[in-house]
Design goal:
alpha/beta; Rossmann fold; 5-stranded parallel β-sheet; 13 helices
Length: 274
């Protein structure tokens, strides 16, 4: 059996990796290297290796190729040792430039995961623990949070990193051998035929789209972080809770927080098709 790695890559957490993982498990034999929901910054590791090797061995192309192959093959071998199934899946988040990473694993599967950044930022910020720490820090944190400054500051960071992520994606699209696809969280949750069919075909599987939809309907959690973000945790046992709207969470923010978020993101969501 020829084993392969599935890399789920995105610009930050809260993009729906865990829901996508549950969908893939329906029609693929999949293992994860550590925990089912573990995040592994493998692209950042490969990027650092790539940068260091090219900086120190710039005058010796053969040395660059040899060193990279040793690092790449060794890491890939160790990853594949962690599972017994045909596929082993890695959740790869906070990625800026994944070009060296993609080039290091050209024969594996790469899923580039999109979610509206207005919702990913909202989801992440809702998990902030306002009352943690010393009293004066709690006071300052609450002022920043409720005034919208915290939302502006964090969203600005995300926007800058997302700019780099989208630039890297354009480079990837220009390459001839494209063993990757874009997956949008919203289309996946909605069960759009085109999105599900694209996933099935990418892995060369024969499952019927309607059969996949039926099995997806039994997935309990659409967003695994949701139940950890809300105050009434006992009432939020499933993200299929009637109050959960994965597409418009940012619209429920108070006006100052919403304005800070939108000002910082500067319509970058439109570049992503939202």
């Amino acid at each position: 059996m020829s084993k392969k790695i599935i890399f789920q890559t995105s610009y930050m957490q809260r993009c729906g990796h865990n829901f996508l993982s549950e969908v893939l498990r329906i029609f693929l034999p999949v293992d994860t290297p550590v925990y089912d929901t573990s995040e592994i910054a493998i692209s950042n590791v490969m990027g650092s290796i790539h940068k260091t090797i090219h900086k120190q061995s710039a005058r010796f192309p053969q040395l660059i190729e040899w060193t990279e192959s040793v690092c790449r093959d060794g890491i890939r071998k160790e990853i594949l040792k962690r599972g017994t199934q045909e596929f082993i899946m890695i959740k790869n988040v906070n990625v800026r430039d994944f070009t060296p990473f993609y080039e290091s694993f050209p024969d594996d599967y790469h899923l580039i995961l999109f979610r509206d950044p207005r919702n990913t930022v909202t989801s992440f910020i809702k998990s902030v623990k306002l009352n943690k720490g010393k009293a004066h820090k709690v006071f300052i944190r609450k002022i920043a949070y409720y005034s919208g400054y915290y939302h502006y500051y964090f969203a600005k960071r995300v926007k800058n990193e997302l700019d780099m992520f989208l630039t890297a994606l354009e480079k990837l699209k220009a390459k001839e051998n494209k063993k990757f696809i874009l997956v949008t969280y919203e289309s996946l949750v909605s069960g759009e035929d085109k999105e599900l069919s694209k996933l099935i075909q990418f892995f060369n599987q024969n499952m019927d789209v309607d059969e996949l939809k039926d099995k997806m309907s039994k997935i309990k959690i659409l967003n695994s972080s949701y139940k950890h973000e809300e105050k009434n945790k006992n009432e939020v046992n499933s993200a299929k809770n009637k109050d959960f709207d994965p597409f418009n969470r940012w619209k429920k923010l108070p006006i100052l927080q919403r304005k800070g978020l939108l000002l910082a993101l500067d319509n970058i969501h439109q570049k992503m098709g939202y």
